[in-house]
Amino acid sequence: MPIFIRIGTANSSLYPTHCAMFGGAFFEKLTRLRTTSEVNNCHSDSHLVSFNHTEIEVTTATMFALTLTAELTGVTNLRPTDSEDTPFWYTFKVQCTSCRETHPKPIAVSRFEQNEMSGSRGEANFVWKCKNCKRESSATIMAAPTPYEQTEPAKPQKVIQFDCRGLEFTEFIPEGEWLAEGVDTNFKFTAIDLTDGEWYDYDEKAGEEVSIKELQWEINRA
Ligand SMILES: [Zn+2]
């Protein structure tokens, strides 16, 4: 029987830690709930749940946000080129929260790609089986990216939010193409490359040089 469990997820107000979803049905009282950190002092984001005398390990979802702080001159609405026709591949370094093993290579996630999780646990944008501890973990991007607005001084703004189960993205690598518009002219800039940490161009309508500098990426719990 497929078992779906939601515990302390992004919707934790709907599913507080003493409740769970099993096979689509909602159970209010579990016979037992304890975090695995009580058992082995690690992967504190997973729980052991017992229901009908069977103990099941559940990995809870943690919501993270990718935040950008950047100095934009003459341009605004900086965002990745990310549509169903041209999906953006968000590149991250990833770490297993069970054993703290880091994936040897950066990985790329698209919000339009669904991958099957084992054991009928549904789908996620990214599914990874850790080579070290063999645990499967996953991540899903929650919504379309939020354009970064030009402000003076520059302030941190969330670009995307994602839900992680059993893994953490530890670093963002801004590979791929970005878009922006001239602040006053609405002039469209495409194929912006941010991998050098700075970008310069010329707004023909304004007759002025534009730039994106001092890029700082951060990943924090949302
Ligand atoms: Zn691991």
UniProtKB/TrEMBL annotation:
SUPFAM superfamilies cross-referenced by the UniProt entry: MAL13P1.257-like
Keyword GTP-binding on entry: no
Pfam families per UniProt: CXXC_Zn-b_euk
InterPro entries referenced in this protein's UniProt entry, alphabetically: CXXC_Zn-binding_euk (IPR008584)
Highest rank taxon of the organism: Eukaryota
GO molecular function ontology, one term from the record: zinc ion binding
Record flagged with keyword Glycoprotein: no
Keywords: Metal-binding, Zinc
Family: Belongs to the UPF0587 family.
Protein's name in the database: DUF866-domain-containing protein
